[in-house]
Amino acid sequence: MEFAKPLKIVAANNGKIYAYWSGTVCITTSASSTKWEADLEHVYYAPDVDVRLLLLGKLEGQAWDIHLKDGGMELKVRDGDLFTITSKVNNIYLMDRN
Predict the structure, then answer these.
(1) Residue 65, SS3?
(2) Contacts of 48 by beta carbon, 8 Å cutoff, 6+ apart
(3) How many angstroms separate the first and last alpha carbons of the chain?
(4) What CATH architecture is 2-94?
(5) 70 and 86 in contact (C-beta within 8 Å)?
(6) In 32-71, at which residue ranges do the beta strands (DSSP E only) sit?
(7) For the CA atoms of the chain, what is the radius of gyration?
(8) pLDDT by residue (tens digit) across 27-60?
(9) Could you give the CA distance from residue 43 to residue 3 in angstroms, rounded to a whole number?
């Protein structure tokens, strides 16, 4: 869904990110030697951002199960299956896109 005007998102240090549309994105990853695929809904498209940011609040609102522990994050899909395990680097949880 394209926005009538860009959506301003305030970021760290009062920086600004502009999103131009929202939609559903299919992502794939692997965990426990299994390849997983899932849809993330209401994803913002912000072409000027060099990395992809995943908001935990959005995941929680879509019934994802999030466990932060031991310097990493376990992300489980709605039915409880493990979707991915990520590591934490500089307080950022990194998720590889397959």
Answers:
(1) strand
(2) 17, 18
(3) 25
(4) Beta Barrel (2.40)
(5) no
(6) 34-45, 65-69
(7) 14
(8) 887 767 778 888 888 888 888 887 777 778 888 8
(9) 13
